[in-house]
Design goal:
This protein has 670 residues and is an alpha+beta fold. The chain has 19 helices and 30 strands. The strands form seven sheets. A six-stranded mixed β-sheet has the order 12-16-15-14-11-13. The structure holds iron/sulfur cluster (2 copies). One iron/sulfur cluster is lined by residues 603, 607-613, 624, 629, 645-648. Residues 603, 607-613, 624, 629, 645-648 line the site of one iron/sulfur cluster.
Length: 670
């Protein structure tokens, strides 16, 4: 079984290496090719297209092509018809603060479009080749320079006001502009540092910063090709990829001898994975699972059902329906999900998957084929076989781990597979419509395509912002998608990160002190308090995971005792932990004991019924009913493994750990 280890080498600062560039091109035949062999038409050697990592190149959809055509017009005027709708355009999603595509026009990059978080719009930046294509067109946003300045501009010098003959009066500060000579030849690209009206009032100074010289314009003949045609000439490589994937699937099934499931999300990658598994298992001995998280696009839910009919797996399709209330309740409690705080996946996806697997395979394991690809992220580039800590009985395998998006799309066109219609409306990735992993460019599409959903999400985020007194721009700049705002975003927006510190509504550890003495029976005592009252009825059973728990209803407290410590928890949220004298009482041991107690109380108080803990406990000692944890004291070994699966712990652990660590640091143990 092939294990893929991402290389440590970095092609560019901050861009991890996810996989090789596999876009080749025959410039004689105008043909993109997905293998490094010779051109299948002319038999000549093909060229590797120079791209920016991570090389997950994809065909531009008609929607995207028309967006790019409009963007070029908006930047340089209506006569800049560089690209036509039937041209072969590829897009290479590269790193930026939100979304950036490198635009590949007949095998050559012409520049980028970047979604700008300050203006919430796309910005076009043509490179040397792209700028050269403006030659012969009547363009806007131009600045004409004196002959004497040309050689300096080509070397990268800024455009100075005295060297300017004339300029488009509509140029505004920050605009990308074309620097031209007296014969209207484009010689470089620049960024305006002034509005043109301001220039006229000044005699000297910088007008624009030059970012790149234009290439010499060369007329190239392109053969227009349909995607059907491109598929035809790439068929050999597609067959090779398919054969390899089928062999891999077969080997996994033979080696693991487990029931087979396909995780179907309604996206392109899971569609290809499903088609491959269907071929590898002609006997139809597999299940297809779609979790309707309650926050799926309606089109995706319809598409999943329709595609199951068209592709003939209707009888294998299991739709696990989750109420949208699960997501919105969690939102109410914890705030918007974040890329670094993805509570939604745990409640609305992982827990339901675990429930289905448990039920379907009677607590046994299954192998689940998933459409994951190395080009998507560094985490996904690590391996093609993995287990999720929250779903221990599922072994995940990806047969398309090494495919880039172009291979996926060519395969879909080749097999004529029905794909999710959302791709044709501008969505590059399909997931839940609230997903914080989506970029703001995608939420802009949501605003137009699904105004009701957009308004609902925006209203919830704005409400949270008001309650937490967060600064403006929380929604507009997409800051709600992070707990810790990444530097590249805070730099672009010049944010003061202290303004974005939030507190959640849930009960939390509000105060703690540790006393150490030379007492021979109880050398360490911890006193502390939770931020709100505790309903002791809801926590008494859960505390069995900490020790022997006794609920004194008359005096309204719970006492928990173990060999190493005793805890008293009061209804007002105060608690006391008394450590008994023992030979090996270390700070680490104290930290662990306090953490376990606090996590257990917070889990019991904040439980959202997801049941991830139930699947984690191999001894079947824990059960959940109406958000209350029940622990069987005869079975529970107090191993605390179930806490590892609990999303509440994921949410609180950083702060709790830090508080205990800090308090312990300030305590001198006797
Ligand atoms: S995982 Fe461990 S602590 Fe949790 S209920 Fe099961 S035995 Fe008890
Ligand atoms: S205690 Fe169990 S059911 Fe409750 S939130 Fe945690 S993992 Fe989910």
């Amino acid at each position: 079984m092939e294990k893929i280890q991402p290389s440590k080498k970095r092609k560019k600062k901050n861009i991890p290496y996810l996989g090789p560039n596999l876009l080749f091109y025959c410039y004689d035949c105008s043909l993109p090719i997905i293998s490094s062999n010779t051109c299948p038409i002319c038999d000549n050697k093909v060229n590797l297209v120079p791209l920016t990592p991570p090389y997950d190149v994809r065909p531009s959809t008609p929607y995207e092509t028309s967006e790019i055509i409009e963007l070029i017009k908006a930047t340089f005027g209506n006569n800049t018809d560089i690209i036509q709708m039937d041209d072969v355009l590829l897009l290479n999603h590269t790193g930026s603060e939100d979304h950036m595509d490198e635009i590949i026009f007949y095998g050559k990059s012409i520049g980028t479009r970047r979604y700008d978080l300050t203006s919430n719009s796309w910005i076009l930046k043509l490179n040397g080749y792209g700028l050269s294509l403006l030659n012969g067109k009547k363009i806007n946003k131009w600045v004409m320079i004196d002959d004497g300045a040309i050689e300096y501009i080509i070397k990268g010098a800024s455009v100075l006001i005295p060297g300017i003959i004339d300029a488009d009066k509509n140029i505004k500060i920050g605009n990308y502009i074309a620097i031209i000579d007296k014969k209207h030849k484009v010689i470089a690209g620049g960024i305006a540092r002034l509005d043109d009206t301001e220039r006229k009032e000044k005699k000297k100074g910088v007008y624009a910063k030059t970012y790149q010289a234009a290439d010499e314009y060369v007329q190239i003949h392109h053969t227009k090709r349909s995607w059907k045609d491109i598929v035809k000439w790439n068929e050999q490589e597609l067959m090779r990829l398919e054969k390899k994937a089928l062999f891999f699937i077969q080997k996994i099934i033979d080696d693991l001898e487990l029931p087979v499931m396909v995780s179907y999300s309604g996206g392109k990658d899971s569609l290809v994975t499903l088609d491959l598994v269907k071929q590898a298992l002609p006997d139809g001995n597999y299940d297809v699972l779609f979790v309707d998280t309650g926050i799926e696009f309606p089109e995706t839910v319809n598409y999943v059902k329709e595609s199951s009919r068209k592709l003939g797996f209707e009888d294998k399709l299991i739709i696990e329906q989750v109420s949208s209330k699960v997501f919105w309740d969690a939102f109410e409690k914890f705030g918007p999900p974040g890329r670094d705080f993805r509570h939604c996946c745990k409640f609305a996806k992982l827990a339901p998957i675990q429930r289905v697997i448990d039920k379907l395979y009677q607590g046994g394991q299954c192998v689940s084929f998933v459409g994951q690809r190395r080009y998507e992220s560094f985490r996904r580039a690590i391996t093609d076989i993995w287990q999720n800590q929250y779903i221990p009985n599922q072994i995940n395998v990806s047969p398309i781990q090494n495919w880039n998006a172009l291979m996926i799309w060519l395969y879909i066109y080749w097999k004529d597979l029905p794909y999710n219609p959302l791709y044709d409306t501008g969505y590059e990735r399909i997931g839940c419509w609230v997903c914080p992993s989506s970029d703001m460019a995608q939420f802009k599409i949501l605003e137009n395509s699904h105004p009701k959903l957009y308004t609902k999400l925006r209203a919830a985020v704005e409400k949270w912002k008001e309650e937490k007194n967060l600064p403006n721009g929380f929604w507009e700049h997409g800051l709600w998608r992070f707990k810790q705002i990444p530097k590249k975003i805070s730099n672009v927006l010049s944010l003061n990160l202290n303004d974005f510190k939030t507190t959640s509504k849930q009960n939390e550890l509000s105060f703690m002190e540790i006393e150490s003495s030379d007492c021979i029976t109880n050398p360490v005592t911890v006193i502390g308090s939770f931020s709100s009252r505790i309903n002791l009825d809801t926590v008494s059973s859960a505390l069995i995971m900490v020790g022997k728990a006794q609920f004194n209803r008359k005096l309204n407290f719970i006492r928990v005792s173990s060999k190493k410590f005793a805890v008293i928890l009061y209804h007002d949220g105060a608690f006391k932990i008394i450590f008994r004298k023992q030979d090996n009482l270390t700070k680490y041991g104290i930290q662990n004991a306090i953490e376990n107690f606090i996590y257990t109380v917070l889990r019991a108080v904040e439980c959202i019924n997801c049941e991830l803990c139930v699947g984690k406990c191999k001894l079947k000692a824990i059960s959940i009913s109406n958000n209350i944890i029940f622990v069987d004291k005869k079975k529970c070994t107090k191993c605390n493994l179930c806490a590892e699966a609990c999303p509440i712990v994921t949410i609180v652990h950083r702060k709790v750990k830090e508080t205990i660590k800090q308090t312990l640091k300030e305590t001198k143990l006797q």
